[in-house]
Amino acid sequence: MTDTHADERTEAGTDNRRAFLQTIGLATTAGLMGTAAGESDSEEATTASGDADLVSLSHGVAVGDVTATTAVVWARAAEAATIHVAYSPDESFDRVGYDRTTVDAETDTTGQLRLEGLESNTRYRYHVWATAGETAYRPLSGRTGGPKGRGPGGSKGKGKEKGKGNDDHPGKGRGPEKRPDEDGRGDGDRIADAIPEAVESGTFVTAPAPDDEAAVSFAWSGDTWGYGDDPVEPPFPGLRTIAERDPDFFLYHGDTIYADALTPAGKVTEDTPIDEALEIYRGKYKEMRDPPAEIAERTNLLELLETTSVYTVWDDHEVINNFAGPIEPLMPEGRRAFREYWPLDRDDDADPGESNRFYDSFRWGKHVELFLLDTRQYRDPNVDLDSKTLLGQEQLEWLKGALADSDATWKLLASPAPLGYPSDSWATEADRTGYEAELLEVVEHVQTEPVSNLVVVAGDVHKSVVSAYDPDDDGEFEFFEAVAGPLGAPAGEPDDLYPALNPTEFFAKGEYRNFATVDVAESGETLTIGIYDEHGTEQFTKTVSASDIDAAADPENPDRIESAFDEDAEGWLVSQNGGSNRPVYHGTGGNPGGHIGDAENKGGVAWYYQVPFEYLGDREAFYGGTLSFDLRQEPADQQFDAEPVEGGDVLLQSGDRKLVYEFRGADDNPGEEWTSYEVALSADETWIDLTSREPLATEERFREVLADLEVLRIRGEYRSGDDTSYLDNVVLTK
């Protein structure tokens, strides 16, 4: 343990060290009570050998990825060592479980141990220490049978089922066993007094069993230290405030380090050699737990990790700003350091910390299931592609299946990238479109399954926002979303929500550091979202009932979808307009009433109006129907024809399948007065198929596109110079 945190512990001498080891019923390799080789009769030998054998733990401890029956303990030794953990559901430590693992420079002397066979919905106390020797500690008495701590060549415990223990693999953290009380004290105060400084301790709560009616409370935030030219530095009071709230667990929601910003550990840039980057990444995690003395005495992260468990999600700054995993050469080293420094257990076929899979779900009783997403490792780069992925196909299919299969009352989707708040992710500016197609797939899946009571908890954007979304505009919310953070990074002012999802904003605040909480009632009937500043002052709370969310799509598909723009812009966007992503709303001057419009002063490339989500999805029933709308422009000279590949006058798209239509004739361009247009959604019209060998769309192709419609755009620019365009009365009818 470092000197920085010595004042957080009760001072303990040689007698306390001996008493602690007696209390937990374990013995060391070289002279302490009851060694594997035999027992020593000399207390002097016990003391001397114990001091020499212990290796300090350099950066505290943590427990993560907790289930009803398992948990992963993390620690880092100051040098190559054997890390030991003893744990018990009793304050008196009358029932003791034990495991160990060896660590070396290969993992920067970090280690992770999976504890199995735990009792559900139970608070555990644990102690972790390290020794220079590899011999396992063993009990003084009452432990002659049963599994022993894992030694070299022991079982790796593969093939476990998430949330269940594995009795067939000895040594992977056996459950606590009853131990006779040697000194007659047997109380928690005695243990606290006996812990030597080389031992780190903590507590955590296991999840309730899946059929257990239990209340659940957790907190989340992210974005800490080293962002921008003037980084916010420790101690991060928000972390201490969260610890004082004693949540069931903490969701550390991305940007747990800022690898690409200068801190004492260094700075990673695109020119950093890969082997140097790994050491910087590791240094970032170490300074987050134990900062240099000239920066701060502590960060409060150790304090939080000692008091509750953590689920850790990564985002971009664990590697480099806005990275896309498949093309980022530094990603594997950033991923390795993240895996080394957090207690991760998200792959049934791997030991903790050995898998590169960071997405998974965790059940907390009858009412809560937490779904963790990885929006960085598999994402396509944010370049001009028609359709891009954040999740990758395998993760996307897992998410859809896991959401549909869950019978938890509330589904909590932990996505670093907000679904409804514009960022560099799903809801992007319209001149960088593509991720929206995957967002539409997720939202449509939520509606058609349907997935009940979905609440998204997000971070990344450095402000706090609570909102709900009705993408099909049927008057029922499909999901709620709450965004929190930062804990340390600079914060900005909130922006508008993503209009295409038909949002309702309940709260938005920026320019302060904050965290959020979720509290689910024991009955499961309500879920309460809380937003707090870093000192714990309440900013906003909202209680949501299960009846407030109805994701089920209307079983009767509408015969007509229309936008009259009489009250607002109704979620429409502007695409390919040099960065403008929302049209201007005009309350008067339409045909009649309100309308939308936009202006552009670059010329040369047509820009388009883009429909909101209520027009999209399965619209095959509209085959043979019509699309109509009104347009006008000013002025009406310097007209040009849009290239079909740009989208013609109307674009329909599903995946890489594109159909375009161009109006031909004397009135093909809008005038300075309102001009009405209508086109049949049928292969009987001359729709151009841009992605088939057939030049014109066939009925089969047309139906394929309408059955999974991801994009519908209407041309807004007709003038090669500065232009202004207006749109009104869009109607899609069968």
Number of helices: 10
Compute the number of strand runs.
34
Distance between the termini: 71 Å
Strand content: 25-35%
CATH architecture of the domain at 219-255 and 310-322 and 355-545: 4-Layer Sandwich
How are the strands of the biggest sheet laid out side by side? 13-14-15-16-18-17-19
CATH superfamily of the domain at 219-255 and 310-322 and 355-545: Alkaline phosphatase D (PhoD)
Alpha carbon gyration radius: 30 Å
The parts where pLDDT drops under 50 for at least 5 residues are 1-17, 26-52, 138-174, 178-188
Kindly report the average pLDDT value: 85
- Shape from CA axes? elongated
Counting helices, strands and paired strands, the structural category is alpha+beta
CATH topology of the domain at 219-255 and 310-322 and 355-545: Purple Acid Phosphatase, chain A, domain 2
- The CATH class name of the domain at 219-255 and 310-322 and 355-545 reads Alpha Beta
Q: Classify the helix fraction into a percent range.
A: 10-25%
Question: What summary fits the major beta sheet?
Answer: 7 strands, mixed
Biased composition (Basic and acidic residues): 158-190
Domain Laminin IV type A: 567-734
Region (Disordered): 137-190
Biased composition (Gly residues): 143-156
